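seq as requested:
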Amino acid sequence: MRKLRTLISVLLLGILMQVAQGASLKLPAILGDHMVLQQNSFAKIWGWTEPGGKVQVTTGWNGKNYSTWADAQGNWQVKVVTGKAGGPHSVTIEGDITIVLEDILLGEVWICSGQSNMEWPLSRAETAEAEIPLSDFPDIRLFTVKKHIAPRPLEDVSGAWEACTPETSPGFSAVGYFFGKKLHKELGVPVGMVHTSWGGTPSESWTSREMLQTFGDFDQQLDDLYNSNDEEMEQAAKEIGRIEAEIESQGDFDNLENIGFREGWMKISYDDREWKTMKCPAEWSSLEEIGMLEGVVWMRTRISVPAAWQGKALVLDLGPVDEMDVTWINEVEVGSSKVVANWNKNRSYEVPASAVTSEELLLSIRIVNTNAQGGMFGVPEQLMIYPEGDQNAEPVMLAGDWKYRIAYKFPKVAQLNNSQTPSVLYNGMLYPLRNLAIRGAIWYQGESNQDRAIQYRTIFPGMIEDWRSTWKQGDFPFYFVQLAPYRYATEHTSAELREAQFLTLSKLRSTGMAVTLDIGNPDDIHPTNKRDVGSRLALWALANDYGLDVVYSGPLYRKQSVDGASIRIHFDHVGSGLVAKGGDLSHFEIAGEDQQYHPAKAVIDGETVVVSSKDVAAPVAVRFAWSNTAEPNLFNQEGLPASSFCTDPWKRITDK
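struct tokens:
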């Protein structure tokens, strides 16, 4: 998810895109053969030519001509009137040369964006084997924006429109495909899906500098990014490209100094008294002494173990390590992970008996972080060492003060220019699309912000408003996916992120949320059921934008009312009624003024749920599905699941 990308080509392309496009007539990539233009709209046709040059556009569906002249920078634009859905049509653009766009359809155009669960291709969806051979839909058109990082807003993207066929669909966003397919089937009109996403990216990467500056949380990164020059960018790109090439070929890289290996920082005899101290576990970015560091850091700690453990095989648990590590006990390498994508995977290594030679063991870890936070970021209870196969042995806990030394830092500009840097994907993959007439957008993201859920309450609505401001098409529909269950390192963080997503519904009009608590996989951050995700997003659009009479959401919390020893929960979107699948309602908890939650009994009563517990005589709050991995059983009769919720106003874990 936090895969580092080679920046040489994209930075050079970005530099070129900011220069005048030259004398010859040119169109942006998003305007091309096989495209879909939004029906019944004022759609923009735009591009570049010589300054002051005349451009004439003729639309084939109505034979109308539109003329304009390029400005001093060579930019030109006309608004054309589109009619009802249909085609194919042609569009002719005449300037110093003539360009004819063929096979143009009028229909519904949607943006689909986010991180890896939106990027997840149809070929890896659970229904891929059955779906792909049937994916021959000539009136569904697909456009994938090539991944592109840009320090400043660009004017064009790379990509091309394609008709949806069994040859083109496998690589397209699965969620975007299923969303577009359902719209096409239900409405009977052409559908254009523009896919622009990047795995592992936070919402601030997709938000403009101007909007982010209103928050104040990203000012330093934004200033460093926007004050960098093109020569620095190119230099950094070459270095980071070298690093990525080595990581991809051998799962690691050799920096020039390679001082840790050269001086034997994993050796017992090495003197680390001059090393600094940090709390462990912790994300480096949260520690004042390290901060947001991309590079190589070595960490060491000495462990006192019982004498009876000598000569026995042990198990070392470290929790998740961001991103790659090599780990030693008493100079014996006991394990490693050299895959960037494993940044969120727990490390558990077998320690051979030959390494357990005394009551004091030296634990040494070399961590390589290529993107963002870095470090060992689990909970203290995850860090331990214990005898292999001995269930009765008391583990030795490892959380506390560790020694550390920074071995290597990636170039500063290279650190800034990765896919997680604020605004860079807005600049390179979203802003260039702003002139495209669209019906709306769908979004699947939040995993990379789940440990900053309170901040997400502001950033996410701000991002949506930012997009709407950029497009200048009013409050276009914006539908998003609520996070699915997953075993994140810190409990309740994703529940708080789901709450932030839910709160967005009441903050901004024309928003909607597809709940996925029933179709996730707690052991895989990439659940493969993308068909239901896309279909549930489509229900919001079909009901709210196209006027179909369908139930489009599961139960959403509206209010609570306290009645003695119980609390009654009221919902919106109950459909034909509430139902508990597979038995009694699960995952309800209740609390009194002491703020201590207890498992609760919950019973459906009409369109409400009554919650109580013998342990709470005077309840004040209820929470439902309030964990990272909750898979509750409250649905409406139409089979759509209820969202998690929490009715208390108390401090959240991510409120730092």
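The mean pLDDT is 91.
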